[in-house]
Design a protein that fits this description.
The protein has helices at 3-24, 29-50, 55-76, 78-108, 111-114, 119-146, 151-170, 172-181, 188-227, 232-241, 248-265, 270-295, 303-317, 319-344, 347-358. With 359 residues, it is mainly α.
Amino acid sequence: MSLNRQIIFWVATLAVLVIFLLVFRAILLPFVGGMALAYLLDPVADWFQRRGLNRLAATLIILVMSVIVFVAVLVLIVPVLVNQFVLLIANMPAYIDQLEVLIQSLLQSGWAERLGVNPEEVRNSVGTFLTQGTTWISTFVGSVWSGGLAFVNVIALLVVAPVVAFYLLYDWDRMIGLIDSWLPRDHAPTIRKLAGEIDRVISGFVRGQALVSLTLGIFYATSLVILGVNFGFLIGLVAGLVSFIPYLGSVLGFIVSVGIALLQFWPDWIFPVAAAGIFIVGQLLEGYVLQPFFIGTNVGLHPVWLMFALFAFGLLFGFVGLLVAIPAAAAVGVLVRYALAQYLASPIYKGQSAKSDDS
């Protein structure tokens, strides 16, 4: 097959995949979730197999353990989170009123005039910022929700995804072998090498980042609860779990926790400063301890590229896009590095002088 035909084939394959995702994005959530769960649990099944269990027994043990953990989380943690979320939404108007009173008192203290700033402009800017921030969050959440996180899909995720994960986990090795048999024979070694590199990046980042996010969530939630910040458990856990998006979880958690602590304990500055310190320590812990230990430094996913992929796929495909974004970003990164290496080794890059030297 000529190079042009190969390019046409792979571009057409990519186009079919994108069209498939766009057409069926509303129902893909439980299936993508099941695939992601099976991928994450496959090393556990392999561990059981290496200790003498067959694949079916290993899969059943993992399924039972997963159900136990899920029920425990559903009973112990979810009611607390839902209750705090409802209370936070209910108290939001009161917090906004308190913030306006706090800003008004600060403006009346005369610091704005001493800095040469018009108090009215400050008041208008803060009002505009709050309005735009609320609108942006509502738009983003609405786009993610409408793109795949409707109520029916949530139920389907809880019911269908474990079933899909069970069957995929049981047939994982057989499925990989079948896909390998479909590879074009001339290019199979190269494709296997690239697939192995993609798997290394995805597994290194996803499984490592899951541990990082869980550790940060526990640290933030526990610290804010001990500090006595309202809704600290909800804020801390969400900030930790969202930390797979670089800096987003820590920044949002910092702003919300410091803001609520400021309104809750004003005029005492110790608690807002302590809340800020929690997230500063969390960032240091993430950057210098957790990420090097759980993820390492060779996954090849730049934070800017990762953020772009998450927001782009979330905008295009909703919540399904968020699940697909990291594997897609890893795959594209590996393919781009491979293409760049091929280009640097080609006559296109080296030019005619390299040809004459070789001859």
